[in-house]
Design brief:
11 helices; globular; 12 strands; seven-stranded parallel beta sheet; alpha/beta
C-alpha cells in the first residue's frame, strides 16, 4: 500500500502589528547600536522642513532612538542652515548622521547635492547615512555620487529595503547594512477607539506618484495627500522663528539648542497632522510608504500600492508583508476590492 500523501504547504501565520513593530525596533537597535557608540557626540543633518509627514516621522524616530542610546547631539541643521565652520567647531571628531528617508539619488536633486557636499566637507569624520531608499535615473548623477561616496574612507550606508541594499553593494564600495525605516523607533501610537468608519485614500501627487487612481465611480471615497502644512498659531510662530534663525546661521549659532527644539516642534506638528488623518479610519488605501508605516503604528488596517519606482513594494516585501493588517494591491481596482471585502 502506498502510504505517501500529498499535503498542502504550510502558510506562515500572520503577525500582529504590535509584534511586528517590536521586532523592527529590535532590528534597528541591532544594526545601528554598533555604528553609533553610547555617549558619542553626533551631528544630525537634513532636518525635513517641508510638509511631508513621513520625513517628520523619520526625524522624530531618529531623535527618540538617539536619546535611548545616550548620545549627545551637538549640531543639527537643514540644507539651508548648514555651516561647515560651525559644525567643525562643535563636532570635532564626532559622528555625522544624515537623516533617513527616500531621497538618496537624483529624484530629489537638491537633497542629494547637500548630502554629497557634506561627505566632501568632512573626509576625516565617520559619516552614517541613516536608513534610506536609493533611486538614480541618470547615469551621470550616479557616477558623480560614486566618486564622492567611494572617496570617503568611513562613510557607512544604511538602507531600508532589499532593493536599495543590493543597489548600494553593486555600485558603491562603502560598508552597507539593511535596517528598517526609523519611524518604527516611535513605537506604537495611540488610536481613537471609535473609528468614524469607511475608507480613505492617501495617494501621492508629487514626483513619486505612480499615476494610479481609483476609477471615477469611486470618487465618493475621500482622497488626500501630505503636500501642504496645516497651519495653526503654534506652527506659524515656530516657522517664523526657524526662518529668522536660518537667515543668520553664524550670527545666531549660540542658539543651536533652541533651533533644535524648534525643529522638533515643527516635526511634531506635521506628524500630529498625519496621525489625525489616519487614526480614526477603518481602513486606508495608500501608495505613500509612511501612510503604510503610520497606519501600522496606529493599528489601522491598510492596503498598500507601489510608488513610481518600486520602493514601497521593496520595503513591504522586506519587512511588513506578514503583518495581519497590511495588504498588497497591484492596482487601484484590486485595492478597492480588498477594501470592500475588509469592510
Amino acid at each position: 500500500m502506498n502510504l505517501l500523501r500529498t499535503s498542502t504547504p504550510m502558510v506562515p501565520p500572520k503577525i500582529s502589528a504590535t509584534d511586528l513593530i517590536l521586532s523592527l525596533q529590535k532590528k534597528i537597535e541591532e544594526v545601528l547600536k554598533p555604528l553609533i557608540p553610547t555617549g558619542a557626540s553626533v551631528a544630525l543633518f537634513d532636518f525635513p522642513d517641508h510638509p511631508n509627514v513621513g520625513d517628520s516621522a523619520i526625524w522624530l524616530g531618529e531623535k527618540a532612538f538617539l536619546k535611548s542610546l545616550g548620545v549627545k547631539i551637538v549640531y543639527s541643521c537643514s540644507a539651508v542652515t548648514y555651516s561647515k565652520a560651525i559644525l567643525s567647531n562643535k563636532l570635532r571628531d564626532g559622528i555625522i548622521l544624515i537623516s533617513g528617508g527616500g531621497n538618496l539619488g537624483d529624484l530629489w536633486p537638491k537633497i542629494q547635492e547637500f548630502r554629497e557636499r557634506v561627505v566632501l566637507d568632512f573626509p576625516n569624520n565617520k559619516i552614517v547615512q541613516l536608513p534610506q531608499s536609493i533611486f538614480f535615473k541618470g547615469k551621470g548623477n550616479l557616477l558623480r555620487a560614486k566618486r564622492v561616496f567611494n572617496s570617503h574612507p568611513n562613510l557607512i550606508l544604511v538602507l531600508r529595503d532589499q532593493q536599495s541594499l543590493n543597489f548600494a553593494r553593486n555600485e558603491f564600495s562603502n560598508s552597507s547594512f539593511l535596517c528598517p525605516d526609523m519611524a518604527f523607533a516611535l513605537g506604537s501610537l495611540n488610536r481613537d477607539q471609535c473609528a468614524k468608519g469607511g475608507m480613505a485614500r492617501l495617494l501621492r501627487s508629487d514626483l513619486e506618484a505612480s499615476g494610479a487612481n481609483l476609477a471615477e465611480s469611486n470618487g465618493s471615497i475621500e482622497k488626500f495627500d501630505w503636500v501642504k502644512d496645516r497651519s495653526n498659531f503654534s506652527f506659524r510662530v515656530n516657522k517664523w522663528v526657524l526662518n529668522v534663525l536660518s537667515e543668520f546661521p553664524k550670527r545666531l549659532s549660540f542658539l543651536q539648542g533652541f533651533r533644535e527644539s524648534v525643529h522638533d516642534r515643527l516635526a511634531f506638528n506635521r506628524l500630529s497632522r498625519g496621525i489625525s488623518d489616519l487614526r480614526d479610519r477603518e481602513i486606508i488605501i495608500t501608495d505613500r510608504l509612511h501612510g503604510h508605516i503610520l497606519s501600522l503604528l496606529l493599528g489601522v488596517p491598510n492596503i498598500v500600492m507601489d510608488n513610481s519606482y518600486g520602493k514601497v513594494r521593496s520595503f513591504f516585501e522586506t519587512w511588513t508583508k506578514d503583518c495581519a493588517i497590511a495588504f498588497w494591491a497591484n492596482s487601484p481596482e484590486e485595492a478597492h476590492r480588498i477594501c470592500e471585502e475588509r469592510l
